[in-house]
Amino acid sequence: MELLVWAGAVLSLLGIGALVWCILQAVKARRERLEGEAMKARLQRVVVVNMAALFVSAIGLMMVVLGVFLA
Fold it and tell me: Origin, by domain of life (predicted)?
């Protein structure tokens, strides 16, 4: 069960890292002062990655909790 906890922790950290990347990309787009369609296209890509990162992080946290309960 220890392996499940560590694997879940790694997944959670990967998800958090991807969330930080999303934040940095959104700030970068804002600093570039993109307008209209360019901003929309950039943020649509960031939103997709953001949702995937949240999913990965949530799965990782579930793995950690499951590993703790089974230990």
Answer: Bacteria
